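Example 350, ligand nicotinamide-adenine-dinucleotide.
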Amino acid sequence: MIFDGSSERRGSILVTGGAGYIGSHAVLALLDAGWPVIVLDNLTTGFRWAVDPRASFVEGDVTDSALVRSILTYHEVAAIMHFAGSVVVPESVVDPLKYYGNNTAATCSLLRNAVDCGVPHIVFSSTAATYGSPDVAQVCENTPTRPINPYGRSKLVVEAMLADAAAAYPINYCALRYFNVAGADPAGRTGQSTAGATHLIKVCVEAALGRRELVEVYGTDYDTHDGTGVRDYIHVSDLADAHVHALHLLMDDPEASHTMNCGYGTGFSVLDVLDAVERISGREIRRVMRPRRPGDPAALIADNNLILSRTRWRPRHARLGDIVRHALAWEDQLARRKPGQPVGQREIAA
Ligand SMILES: NC(=O)c1ccc[n+]([C@@H]2O[C@H](COP(=O)([O-])OP(=O)(O)OC[C@H]3O[C@@H](n4cnc5c(N)ncnc54)[C@H](O)[C@@H]3O)[C@@H](O)[C@H]2O)c1
Ligand SMILES: O=c1ccn([C@@H]2O[C@H](COP(=O)(O)OP(=O)(O)O[C@H]3O[C@H](CO)[C@@H](O)[C@H](O)[C@H]3O)[C@@H](O)[C@H]2O)c(=O)[nH]1
């Protein structure tokens, strides 16, 4: 993205979780926009090789206060983008304290250090799971937040913490509520690489490429057009660009904080996704119908008017076909990579 906003580029951006799926795309977006980047990641689910070599890399935990403070004081950190966290909804149901620890308590620790070290801005990875199971077709930011799983609650508490901190200290924040993130860098530099990932598009793409035997469809009796769960899938590179816009929004008015949906406003069911992956890959995918998965809402679709009005962010890869094509291309490349080999620069046809 070329950013021609008025904010000055002073200092570096600390990206926690920058070796992970979304964080590694945000690192690319920041570097491509001219920002120096420092990544802090403990590599529990991320990969060192996924971090672009133009960024500095520190292996460590966001709860390691001594480490975080040394980064914040040594580098001139203009803002933090906080992606580090635990992300799997069903796991949060069986191990909620992991989520309150790594999402809520860890962010409290990071925020404490950010405030103490005078970092003026933070962009936070929130989630559509904060809405729970809404009774409206599209959720806007003031739709009541009633999360139905510990993952969503662990993030909603952080949003409250950020609001209280921004009222009390000289820091402003942008909480971006991501809908379902999918796809991969169109230039093939990074993508979703976690082994055993549970996200639907990743699972379908693995099945199409013969790396899984089948796809389980969790729930066929939802009140949706075909009975399966409906989600708003956002291309990860569009989401990464949204972070750069959020950063400039914070810098342009340090008094204002923002909570904004990141989605396209279009919903696809599990069967729609399966059909798209079959069509684009040319492979048939074996489907097995299963009961509903605990903690899953029927449908979650964004009203994205707020981010469209407050920033100049505009989606560039909003077609489900593009998301699937880029996910397939990444999965294919990932399978052929040798362990530790840096990510490629191959152009993927859009
Ligand atoms: N993937 C989605 O659909 C989605 C949707 C909504 C919100 N989010 C949020 O976006 C963020 C990134 O998600 P992702 O899909 O890229 O997941 P990911 O697991 O690929 O990335 C998380 C990264 O954080 C690192 N990490 C985890 N805990 C850490 C800690 N305590 N200290 C340092 N590093 C740590 C991991 O090693 C990994 O590199 C998360 O906060 C997640 O809750 C993701
Ligand atoms: O093998 C699978 C995987 C998923 N699903 C269904 O597909 C939909 C999407 O599921 P999934 O890809 O696991 O994402 P979500 O559970 O919707 O959660 C994602 O999207 C949320 C925002 O909407 C984020 O907060 C979470 O981090 C992220 O995991 C749901 O209806 C699931 O029941 C299946 O039927 N089979």
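Summary: Residues 12-336 form a domain with the Rossmann fold fold (CATH 3.40.50.720).
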